[in-house]
Every structure is written in structure tokens, then in C-alpha cells.
Amino acid sequence: LIDRRLYLPTSWTDDRDRCRRAGIDDAIGFETKVAMAKAMVRRAIAEKIPFRWVTADAAYGYSKGWRFELEQADVFHVMATTRHDTVVTRWALDHPVHDLFTGLPRQKWKRRSCGKGAHGPRVFDWARVEVRPWHREDRRHWVVARRSVSRPEEISYYIAYCPADTTLDELIRIAGSRWAI
């Protein structure tokens, strides 16, 4: 964790007296959580603060524009997204991520923990499918799926941009690290 900012809802930012009593400067206005996250990452890049990964939930990861911006800055990321998000594949420019895993052979799914939870290890079945395979030789784009062990119909998706030699276990570790925030 290299940065943090306090999120203030409009119920606070619209009440300047309340903000002043709490010591919040008048210059501080409402900002969405996504805008705050983008500003923090942009600042880290501009100030050349060393960091390896960006990870976020689907509220942030669904933004193709932000993922593209991170990629252009060569910032590795594992971002949750929705099942309705689309990616570029060999077969389509807008391939729904959930369709990539239909009929995936059983041996492609790996049961792994993505970290400790309140009730022990958070264990899921994980798989990944490469997308945009014609990109840079030293980088890869993956869609990663996290499937519930007890309810296999419940699947979450992540978009990853990373070094070519990044393992599935590393992507799982990064995806799981966002729960610590």
C-alpha cells in the first residue's frame, strides 16, 4: 500500500460547516472513488514511486479506459471486472469474458487459496485464458476466472496485464491481495 485518501460522500462535501468542524479544507470537494484511485496511481507514476502491481474490484476494473492507461504506462494489474465486460481475442473484438470459460476442460481449473479470510483460507477454483495474444512478446493479457467451490455457477472475473512469465499462482495472489484494503 503506497497511498490512501479519505473518501467523502456528497453528504459531507455539500455541508461545508461540517467539513470545517472536522478540519477538512474548503478546497476539498466531492470526488468519486474511481477518480481518487486514478489520481493516486497517476501520482505514483509521475513521482516514479516504485510499485509492481495495481489491483482493484470491479467498480474500478470495469473501466477499459483506465486499464488501457495503466497498460500504456506499463503498469501491471489484476482488476476485477463484471461478467459482461468484453475483451479482444483472436475471434472477436468484443468477446464477453464469461464466454471464454464455457466448456473449459476440468484440468484447466486449479483449486487455490487467494489468502486468509475471517474463517480460514479463501479457496476457489481458478483458470485463465490468454487474450490479445499478438501483443508484446514480453507481456501477456489474461482473463482470470475465480469459481466458487460450493456454488460453481458463481464465477468472478479479472483482467490481467503482466510480464509473460507470470504464473497463475502469482495472479491469484495479486487478486486476493485487494481484500486486505
From TrEMBL:
It comes from the Bacteria. Residues 1-111 form the Transposase IS701-like DDE domain. It holds the Pfam family DDE_5. Transmembrane segments: none annotated. InterPro entries: IS701-like, IS701-like_DDE_dom. PANTHER family: TRANSPOSASE (PTHR33627:SF1). This is Transposase.
